[in-house]
Amino acid sequence: MAVLLKRQLSDSEKQQILAQHGRTCFATGHEIPEVEQLQFDHIRAFARDGASELDNIAPMCAQHNKEKGALPLDDFRIKLRLKDFFATGDRLTLGDLLDYMKKNRDLPCYGSPISVKENDGTAQITSPSFTATQPLHTCKTTGWKYFYATLDIALLDSDDDHDETVGLQPRYLIFDKVFNLYRHFQKHPVLQPSVGRIVDDRIRLFDGQHKIAALLWNGRRQFECKVYLRPDVRLLNDTNIAAHDKFAQTPFFSSIMVMKLGAQFGADFERYKNLEDGQPKTEASFMDYLRKQDSNLNTAELNQRFRSYLYNSVLEHEENRLRHLVSASNRGSMEKPLTIDQLSKSFFSCFMYRNPTTDNMTTDAYARDQELQNMVEFMNAFYDIGLSKWNPKASPNDEQQRKLNRLAGSKSMMAWAELMHGAVCGKLEIYGNEDRVRPFYRLLTPQQNESIRNAVQRLVDWKMWVAPASDEIDAALAGNKSQLKEWFKKKGLTTGYLMGAPE
């Protein structure tokens, strides 16, 4: 419940407060109608050194005073603004926050160019508004040079992707983490600097964006930073991903791993394909090429990067209509019900060939581009026929949403995807084991795509999806994949049914 004042304000005190703030709600600045009762609360809480004078009290509307709960007004107002920022997208970084704050006039500028020159063991940093000389340090492992400095936000930016170059920013901002750090830093110090590098005469940060985001909302405009001058970008990216993955306290989102590793792998792949060494170009030989480039990568890590590249190529395809329902985190939500892990164990495991091929890329035998296009077509069919009707605001009794919840459940998709694989192979008349593991690794005719679309239509139309709430299907969906697959078959959801046979 809302925090109440320790005593009642007198009418004259209320008038003093209104003279200072106007009849506006402190949370958002909107006008409070005359017919609505005014409420008053502390801007900064007593527990956080808030003063008891009238200038620490502001008016609020009843709705926002109720919504804020035990938060002081300052914190509640920041929470509302954070919600407004996070409503602008689902893959937001520090760069997006800086742009948002500049547009809303919280910042005059950010990411201004600088000049950094080495001179006798120091780094001379200059810009039109800043000059400093900092000692240069050298990493004993890599030989990279770096400096520490307290830098104004006017000189800082996020290390996001720019102009087809892969940035090193490994995470998206998380609402709860930013807000909790914002409150934490009101009383506690920051223990570690943010880390960045010089890119095109700009300082781009790739570590510590949540700290800086939280401090920005606290009004901080200068930040302690560690900045590399000329690091090996590939090794730095590998180190950064490892730091945010296997060595991190916060789990790394699968979607980010797919995007970062996939994008880096894709850039390496393009360089390899343009390499004039007189040797046939294949995916398998590319993996050998990567092993020679980086002996620290083992086979499992290389395979992870290869699969991330394939997944990223499908999910980031501009024609993929299903992608906006894929969560950026490791968990689905009502707005974005699908996850990378879920797709990797259903669509990708059943329909993509996820191992490097030995097919010469310059011949017609190499069909990876066709496979990617076929995957997009298949996912679009699933979206157009089913999930395009997904409604996160539907009531629990909505039959259409109940059907889609069952259809798009994680174990459900893993089970029916295997049945659908058999149907797709049957539709395409694929019988050999070598071809069955890569059903979409080929050019498909419009007629074949239409027959696959018909199988998806049969799946979405299966009668058990619309069974009443708490029907036996819900108990089956809670079981393991193998048991669920057998239950599907007993109830008529079989490969034959998907191909057109009656239930």
Description of the structure:
The chain is an alpha+beta fold and 503 residues long. It contains 20 helices and eleven strands. The protein has three domains: 11-84, Orthogonal Bundle (DNA Binding (I), subunit A); 90-244, Conserved hypothetical protein from pyrococcus furiosus pfu- 392566-001, ParB domain, CATH 3.90.1530; 322-499, no CATH class. Helix 8 (254-273) packs across helix 10 (299-315), helix 10 packs across helix 13 and helix 15 (410-427) packs antiparallel against helix 17 (446-461). The longest helix is centred in the middle third of the chain and has 20 residues, at 254-273. Residues 247-255 have low confidence and may be disordered.
Sheet with the most strands: spatial strand order: 6-7-11-9-10-8
Mind describing the biggest β-sheet?
Answer: 6 strands, mixed
Output the number of helix runs.
20
Globular, elongated, flat, extended or rod-shaped: what is the shape? flat
Please specify the SSE layout and strand pairing.
Layout: H1 11-21, E1 39-42, E2 57-60, H2 62-67, H3 73-86, H4 94-103, E3 115-119, E4 122-127, E5 130-135, E6 137-138, E7 145-152, E8 156-158, H5 175-184, E9 194-199, E10 202-207, H6 209-217, E11 222-228, H7 233-244, H8 254-273, H9 283-293, H10 299-315, H11 340-344, H12 347-351, H13 368-385, H14 399-407, H15 410-427, H16 433-436, H17 446-461, H18 472-477, H19 481-490, H20 495-499
Parallel strand pairs: 8-10, 9-11
Antiparallel strand pairs: 1-2, 3-4, 4-5, 6-7, 7-11, 9-10
Helix pairs in contact: 5-6, 8-10, 10-13, 13-17, 15-17, 15-19
